[in-house]
Amino acid sequence: MTAKDIITLPDERLRTKSRRIGAVSAEAQAIAEGMIEATLEWEAGREHEFGAALAAVQVGLLERIIVVRHDFDNKADKSFGVFINPEIVKTDGELEEDLEGCLSVKDIYGSVKRYTKVKIKAINLEGKPVRLTATGFLARVFQHEIDHTNGIVFVDRVNDPHNLYRLEADGKFSPLPPPEAAKAIASRGETH
Predict the structure, then answer these.
(1) Active-site annotation holds for 126
(2) Which of 60, 78, 106, 186 is the most exposed place for a label (fewest CB within 10 A)?
(3) What confidence tens digit (pLDDT) does each residue in 125-148 have?
(4) CB contact set of 3 (below 8 Å; sequence gap of 6+)
(5) How far is CA 88 from CA 80, 141, 144, 157, in A?
(6) Catalytic one among 145, 168, 180, 190?
(7) What is the pLDDT of residues 37-77, one digit of tens each?
(8) Which of left, alpha, beta for 20 (phi over 0: left; psi -120 to 50: alpha)?
(9) If 0-12 CB within 10 Å is exposed, 13-18 middle and 19+ buried, where does residue 12 land?
(10) CA angle 70, 78, 173 (to 5 degrees)
């Protein structure tokens, strides 16, 4: 897979709930590897952005697979964890508002409230159960990606169009002009 395989709004697949995977297969492994390649290629073309994670639906595959970067503070570290059928089993901590972006929502960022701590269960590529507690930015990333597997995009969680921003070429954010903000808010899906 390449960065060109990453789909963007208004592609309706982003509004569709992904299927659970029954058994981990070589195909799931290949999908995960392709997702990582696409994320890294996408990131290579963006000086001021970072490919933190990706859900399979973002490459047009309605499978419950997500890949999550191991080290968010080191762009040189290109290793990812793979999570199949990920679920949030418990939310904890406070709701914290922060900016989010998405490889499937080009150049737009929005202020989204997320829990600061979540407990996740999933399956790894060996088919073994995984349970983990994620805090801070990692908790935000898991919530964002699991939303994708449920047909939800971060703009669906932005309630005020004044909380939408455009990433400029210099790496700074500017408020999204009202017509563009209204369009982004209007793009929210009603299928989930």
Answers:
(1) no
(2) 186
(3) 999 999 999 999 999 999 999 999
(4) 38, 41, 42, 45
(5) 19, 12, 11, 17
(6) 145
(7) 999 999 998 888 889 999 999 999 999 999 999 998 888 89
(8) beta
(9) exposed
(10) 80
Q: Is-contact 91 147, C-beta < 8 A?
A: no
Q: Which two tokens stand for residue 124?
A: 């790894």
The answer to pTM > 0.85 is yes
- Domain 3-186, CATH homologous superfamily name and number: Peptide deformylase (3.90.45.10)
Looking up tokens 């901590």 gives 93
Nearest residue to 114 via CA among 91, 87, 84: 91
Tokens in use for 52?
A: 């933190």
The residue ranges of every structural domain in the chain are 3-186
